[in-house]
Structures are given as structure tokens and as C-alpha cells.
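User: Reviewer 2 asked us to show a designed sequence for the structure in our supplementary figure. I'm pasting the C-alpha cells here. Could you produce the per-position amino acids so we can include them in the response letter?
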């Protein structure tokens, strides 16, 4: 059982009762999985209990005396939802802003609950927009990936960070070439939007001082776009520096400021944020973040997709991006413990950054 299965036949009746009531300031924990709380057992069996960083369901985490003050200084404003009251969680929700990495899969491993959950949402008429800070793939490449996984979706249902960078340039009527540091997905999106991308030769990774002193910047390059690049190197850093230091009107755009992401075997992948910080340190330029965690994403979603914040829920594993986007929208948020944010991290998170709901996993 999972989130989608809680939205049962009585969901339709609830939807007819009216729009979503004003969002509660309380936050909630769904033990045993997001979807496990959503079933046909109705709304009457709510049991709310205070949870202080649970190591196991229903048991308080014991910490050494010297750590107690640190944990007690961080109030936990979420509460425990009994699995039987699932339909009330989704009352009035028509759109789910769904993260991918750390929620639907980790690395190359798709979680068992992913396909059943998404198919159930579709059956119930709840729109799911896959909004990811991953810029490695274009929208079309994600469509193909989902097809291999076993789900048919359209490009309009995918909002990757690669697309958001191109959409931002289009929104400001950008004219000129783009110096791109990033994977193929971002280049494909830029080209689809009519922008020419200039890149470094992949077989060159460094740059001597002599070569750098002779380097002539392309006068048509009017923006530096940084996406996650596993081949980030000194040469790319040096060339980006010339464009941004020598032309104050050159745009500096980053697809996201994520510190990193969790992979299989509990390995942590360095993210785009560290690469952006390196460029900022050298150039003194602060990038425009077009992904989750920046200011462009929410207005864009509302305008392009007709998203009504009062009827949406953000689901993701990161406090600084997924949950931050939901807080920008003042909508419900839900965070599974399958990605970057652990229960320990959440226990030390200030109330204004905590999600509305947390759960062990989507299913």
C-alpha cells in the first residue's frame, strides 16, 4: 500500500465537497511509506502522536546526554499520521510535483513502489509533473527512459533542469551563443529552443598559462550555462572565467545548486553546486539558479502548466530544493527517506525548513 492507494473511491466524493481547506501549520509523518497511509478505511481513525526523530516507528530515539540540547533546540513541527486517514492527506490535490532521483529511483535502481504509485495517480486523475534538478537528460531522453522503465509519458510531463535553463533564456529573449559546461541533455534542450552552444573539446582537460594568455573569447557568447558535468575540469573553469570576468553583461546560469546526490551503495555524488561555487569564487559572479531552490521555477510552473499552489503537493528528498519549492508555493510537501535527507538530518532541521509530511518511502 502507498500514497496513491489511499486516494480511493471516497476521494471523488471528497473532491466534490470543495476546494482544499486552508493548509494546516502542522507537519506530518507517514510511517511505513507514503502510499501505505492511503486506503479505503476513511478519515475517522486519525491518531496523532508527537514524534521526536524516530529511529523505529513509535519509539523515541535515545541520544547521549551531551547531544540532547542540540536536538531539543530544533522543534519538530510535523506529526504522525495514522495510515488509515490517507484520503484526507490528498483532499483537494490535483497536481503532484514529483522529484525523481531519491524518490522514484536511486542511481540505476528503480524502487518497487514507483510504477504502481504513478499508475494509480494517473487512474485517479491526479496530474504528476516530474520536476527534477537533474540536467543530464533532455525531456525526450527522459520520455525514452520512462518507456524502458515501463511507463508511457509525454514531454509535457517532464520538467528537467536542462529544460529549465533553456526556458529561462527564452523568457528573457536571450540572443547570442552560450558557453556550456554540462552533459548532452542540456545541449539538446538549448538547441531545441534555438540557442547555439559552444563547448570545450572533450579531449582537452587543462590549459597552460601561455595558452590562456592567448585565448580569444568568442564575442557572440553572451551566457555561461553550467549543468552537472562529470568531466568538469580546469580548462572549462578557465574559459568560463574569461567570459564572466571580462563581460559583466554575460549571464551566469546554473541548472541547480545541489551539493550532490545519493547513489547505490550509499555513495554520494558531488553535485553542480560545488562546480558553481568554484566559478563564483574565481569570478565573483553569483549564478542565476533556474532549478528548484531558485526564484524562476515556481512562477514558470504556474504560468506554463497552470499549476495552482493551493491544489498541489511537492514530493522530494531534498530540503533545500524540493521542500523549499513547496514552501515557496505555500503548499503541502512530502519527503521520503530514500534519498539525501535522513531522519538524523531532519531531526536537526529548523521548523521553517521542515516538510509537511515525511515517510520511509513512496510506497
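Assistant: Here is a per-position design you can include in the supplement:
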Amino acid at each position: 500500500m502507498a500514497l496513491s492507494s489511499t486516494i480511493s473511491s471516497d476521494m471523488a466524493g471528497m473532491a466534490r465537497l470543495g476546494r482544499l481547506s486552508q493548509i494546516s501549520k502542522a507537519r506530518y509523518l507517514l510511517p511505513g511509506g507514503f502510499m501505505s497511509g492511503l486506503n479505503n478505511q476513511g478519515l475517522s481513525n486519525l491518531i496523532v502522536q508527537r514524534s521526536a526523530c524516530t529511529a523505529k516507528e513509535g519509539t523515541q530515539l535515545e541520544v547521549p546526554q551531551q547531544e540532547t540540547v542540540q536536538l531539543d533546540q530544533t522543534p519538530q513541527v510535523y506529526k504522525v499520521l495514522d495510515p488509515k486517514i490517507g484520503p484526507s492527506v490528498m483532499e483537494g490535490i490535483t497536481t503532484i510535483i514529483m522529484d525523481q532521483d531519491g524518490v522514484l529511483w536511486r542511481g540505476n535502481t528503480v524502487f518497487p513502489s514507483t510504477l504502481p504509485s504513478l499508475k494509480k495517480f494517473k487512474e485517479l486523475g491526479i496530474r504528476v509533473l516530474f520536476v527534477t534538478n537533474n540536467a543530464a537528460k533532455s525531456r525526450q531522453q527522459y520520455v525514452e527512459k520512462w518507456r524502458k522503465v515501463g511507463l508511457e509519458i509525454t514531454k509535457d510531463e517532464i520538467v528537467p533542469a536542462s529544460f529549465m535553463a533553456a526556458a529561462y533564456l527564452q523568457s528573457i529573449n536571450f540572443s547570442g551563443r552560450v558557453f556550456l559546461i554540462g552533459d548532452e541533455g542540456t545541449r539538446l534542450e538549448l538547441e531545441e529552443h534555438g540557442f547555439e552552444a559552444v563547448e570545450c573539446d572533450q579531449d582537452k582537460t587543462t590549459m597552460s598559462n601561455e595558452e590562456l594568455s592567448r585565448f580569444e573569447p568568442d564575442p557572440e557568447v553572451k551566457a555561461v550555462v553550467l549543468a552537472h558535468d562529470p568531466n568538469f575540469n580546469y580548462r572549462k573553469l578557465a574559459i568560463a572565467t574569461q567570459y564572466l570576468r571580462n563581460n559583466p553583461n554575460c549571464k551566469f546560469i546554473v541548472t541547480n545548486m545541489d551539493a550532490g546526490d545519493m547513489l547505490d551503495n550509499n555513495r554520494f555524488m558531488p553535485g553542480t553546486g560545488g562546480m558553481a561555487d568554484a566559478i563564483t569564487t574565481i569570478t565573483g559572479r553569483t549564478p542565476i539558479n533556474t532549478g528548484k531552490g531558485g526564484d524562476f521555477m515556481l512562477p514558470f510552473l504556474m504560468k506554463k502548466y497552470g499549476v495552482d499552489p493551493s491544489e498541489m503537493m511537492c514530493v522530494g528528498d531534498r530540503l533545500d530544493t524540493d521542500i523549499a519549492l513547496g514552501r515557496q508555493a505555500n503548499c503541502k510537501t512530502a519527503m521520503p527517506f530514500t534519498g539525501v535527507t535522513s531522519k538524523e538530518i531532519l531531526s536537526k532541521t529548523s521548523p521553517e525548513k521542515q516538510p509537511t509530511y515525511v515517510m520511509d518511502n513512496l510506497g
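For the response letter, you might also mention the following. Residues 8-34, 36-72 have pLDDT under 50 and may be disordered. The longest helix spans residues 234-246.
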